[in-house]
Amino acid sequence: MTKPWISLSGIGAFAVLLLGVAPFVLTDHWLNNLGKYCCWAIAAVGIGLAWGRGGMLVMGQGVFFALGAYSMAMHLTLETAGDRIPGFMVLYDPLAPLPAFWEPFRSAGFTLLAIVVLPVVLAGVLGYALFKRRVKGAYFAILTQALAVALAILISSTIRETGGDTGLSDFKYFFGYVLNDPANKLMVYLIAAGLLVVCLLAVWQLYRSRFGELLVATRDAEERVRFLGYDPANVKLVAFVVSALMASIGGAMFVPIVGIITPAEIGAAASIMMIAGVAFGGRASLFGPALGAMAVGWGQSSLGSTWPEGWTYILGLLFVVVILFLPNGLSSLPARIAAARRKPDPQPTPAAPAAAVLEEVRS
Amino acid sequence: MTGTSLVVTDLCVEFSGFVAVGGVSFDAHPGEVRFLIGPNGAGKTTCIDAITGLVKGTGSAKLGEKELLGRQVHRIVRLGVGRTFQTASVFDELTVLQNLDIAAGRHRSSTSLLRSRRGTDPSIELALEETGLTGELATPAGILSHGQKQWLEIAMLLVQDAKVLLLDEPVAGMSQDERTATGELLQRIAAKRIVVVVEHDMDFMRRYATRVTVLHQGRVLSQGTVAEVQADPRVQEVYLGTADAMTEG
Amino acid sequence: MHVDALIAPLLNGSAQGALLLLAALGLSLTFGQMGVINMAHGEFLMIGAFAAYLVQQVITASDLSIPVALPVAFVVAGLFGLLLEVTIIQWMYRRPLDTLLVTVGVGLILQQAALQIFPSQGVPVEKPGWLDGQLNILGYEWPLRQLFTILLATVCVAALSAWLKYTSFGRRIRATVHNRDLAETSGISTRTVDRLTFFTGSGLAGVAGVAASLIGGTNSQMGAQYIIPAFLVVAAGGIGQLKGTIIAAWAVGVALSYFAYWTTGSLAQVLAFILVIVFLQLRPQGLFTVRTRSLA
Q1: Helix axes A61-81, A108-132, angle to 10 degrees
Q2: Which chains touch C (3 or more CB pairs under 8 A)?
Q3: What is the Cα–Cα distance from B197 to C128, expressed in whole angstroms?
Q4: Is residue C292 part of a domain?
Q5: Which residues of chain B register pLDDT less than 50?
Q6: How many domains does chain C have?
Q7: Nearest CB to A210: which of B72, B105, B160?
Q8: What residues form the membrane-spanning segments (chain A) (predicted)?
Q9: What does the alpha-carbon distance between residue A123 and residue B69 come to, in Å, rounded to a whole number?
Q10: Largest CA distance in chain A
Q11: Is C215 on the interface with A (CB under 8 A)?
C-alpha cells in the first residue's frame, strides 16, 4: 500500500537521534531526563495502539506501569540490601521477616520474567472478562481508571510491604552494575531508548499488518466485525495486552533511571498524564504518542517543578484545546493544513477530514 | 433444489413483554431470491436479527442440520450466515480492498494476521468484478456512493463465502439503474447461495422475487409466488392504500 | 459481638451511601439522560463545598448559613455546569469518549484554581448547632449529621424524580432522551433541554458538595475522591435508572463501611472497587436495564 520505507526511515532517524546523537550532545542531567521521557514514551506507544487504533481509552495504564516498576524496584532494593532486610521495612518492624512475595524477586531472571508475564496475565484476564462482556467506551475507561486508583491506595496503605507513599528508592545496583557510575547510567539510558525504538518497530509492523486493519475496523464498527465472523473481543484483547506489556516495560526502566517509584507515579493523575501525551501527539499515528509523551514529560519535569501552578493549567488546557479542536493531535496538523490548502473553500467538505484521518491510519 | 437450505420454524422474539415476532416459519433454498415483505413493524428485520443472533429468539432456525439460534453472533457467521444492515455499514476509514480483505480474513491463520497484505485474493477480485467495484479498489469506503456501499457490503458477503445472504433493504435510496443492477446481481448470486431480501419496494420485489413471505404484526400473513401473494385478499387488506401500487406498479 | 458493632457500620454506611448518591445523582442525569461523561463533576461538587464556606463568611450564624448554602451551592455549581455545556460540551455530543477527556482537563483547571484561591490545606465549614447531637439507635449513638445527609439525599431524589415525572419540562427531557429527532420535530427545543439538564445535574453536585463539606474536609482535592466512586455507582445502577443508582449507592456505602470495620479504610476502598467491577462483570448493563433492539 503506502511506502513502508517512509515510516521505517522515520524510526531509523529517531533511533540515530536517541542512541547516536543524544549521548554526545546532552549533559548527564538531561540525558537522564530524556531516559525518563523514553519510559513514558514506551507506555504511550502502547496507549496509542490500544486507544488510537483500538478505540479502548485506557485510563489506568499506571497499573501496568506499576507492575513493571515495582517488580524492578523490589529486585533492585533486594540487590542493594544484600542479605539483610531492606532498610525501610526494618524501620516499621525490625523483627518481621521479608514478605513472602518479595522473596522470588531476589532472582534477576524471575524479575525480568515478572516484568513481562505479570502485565500480560493481568491484562489478559481483565481484558478477556471485560471485552467478552462487551464492556466498552466510557465504562472501560472508568473501570481502568478505578483500578489505577485502587492500586495506588493499596500501595499507599501497605507501608511495610511496599514502602507506602514514600515508595521504593536508594537503589545502588542494577543487575550487578553500580548505578552511580556515569558509564552505567549511560547504559541504562541506552537500554530504555533502545526499547522505545523496538516498541515503535513493533507497532509499525502491527499497524501495517492485517491485524492493524482489523483493529481499526473493530474500533469503527465493532458490530460489523462480529458479522464478518470475527470475535472483536479477541482483537481488542491482543491490542490491550500488548499495550499493557509496553506500559510495564516503561515502568521497569523508569526505576533505575529515576531512582524512585511511588504510588503518585502510577495513580489516577499519572495515568491521565500518560493519556495527555498521546492525545497531544496524535493518538492514531505512529510517532505521535511517543513524541507527545516526551513533550508532556518534558513539561512535567521542567515546568512542573519551576512553575507548578502554571503547568497544571497548561496540562488542563492541553486536554481541552487538543481534544476539542485537534482530536487527532499535532500529527494530524500537516494533513489538515494540506487539506485546507487544496480546498480554499472555507466550508469543510465531509471528505476532507475523512481523508486526513485516513492519512493517519496509513502512516 | 440443491445444497443446504435455511429452515425457520415457529420463530418468536419478545422485547420485555412486547411480541415483535410471534411464530414465523419460512424456508429458503439456493436458486431462489426469497423476499420478506410487510408493513412497518411487521417484524422483518427482527426475524433477521434473531437468525443472526443479534436478538434472542425462540423456536428454530436451521441451516442444513445445524441449529443457529442460541449461538454467538460470530459463530453463526462462521457457519456461513452473512447479513447486511439497513444503513450500509462498511469501514469508512479503510479502502474497498481493505474492507474486502477483512471480510475474507476469517479463513486465515492468526499468524498471517501479523503480516501485511501482499497481492489480492482471487476471491476478492471475483467479488469486485461481480459487484462492479473493480475501479474503486483503493477508494476509502467512506466516500463511496450510497449504492456502492451496499454493493461493497454484498461483495464482503461474497468473499466471506456466506452460504446464506440476509439482505436488509438493499435497494433503499438507490436510483432506478442501481436497483436494476442490484436485482440482477442478486439473481446471479442466488444461483449458488441462499438469498433472503427484506424489502419495502414492491416494484423491486415483483421484478426479482422468486417466492415471497408477507409478514404482518409479527406473523406470516401469506406465502407463495409473487402472483399468489398478490392475489391473496388478506394481503390486499393489509396493504389497503398501497394495494393499488402492488397490482399496478 | 455487640449489636452496635453491627449496627454502627450499617448506619454509617447508609450515610456514606447517601453522600455517594448525592454525588452520583447529577451524574446519572447528565450521563444517563444525555450520554455526557463529565469528569469535572467532582470539581462541581468541590465548588458547592467552597460555596458553603463563602456563604458562611457572609452569614456567620452557622445554624442559618447551611440552609442558605444549599440553594446557593446548587445555583453556583449549576451555573458552572451551564458554562461548561455552552462553551465546550455542546460541540461534542457525538464524541462521548472525547468529552470525558476534555472534562478531565476542565477538572484539572478548576482544581488548580481552587488551590490558588483558597488556602492549600483547605477551609473549615462549620456544622450548624442543630446537627451536633446524636440519636440513640439500639445502643449506638448515631451522629445527627449522618441522618441529615440521608434526609438531604432523600429530598433531592424525590424532587428530581417528581421534576422528571410531573413537570412539562421533565417530560420534554424524557422525550428528548428517547428520540431526539422526533422531540425536535414536535417543537421541543432540545438545546434548551440539554442546557437545563446540565444545569440541574451540575447543581446537584453542588448540593452534594455542601453535604460533603459537613462530613470531610473542604479542599481542592475533594472532588477527585468522589468522581470515580460516583461513576461506578451510576454504572452499577444501570444507565438512566434512578432506582438502580439509589440501590447501588447504598450498597457501596454500606459495603465500604463494613469492609472498613473489618479491615482498614484504604483496603475497604480497594475491596469496594473490586466488588463493583466484579458486579459489572456479572451484569454489564447494571442493576436495571431498558431492553432495546438498537445495535449499540
Answers
A1: 160
A2: A, B
A3: 71
A4: no
A5: 1, 243-249
A6: 1
A7: B105
A8: 6-27, 108-131, 138-159, 186-207, 237-262, 268-298, 310-327
A9: 32
A10: 77
A11: no
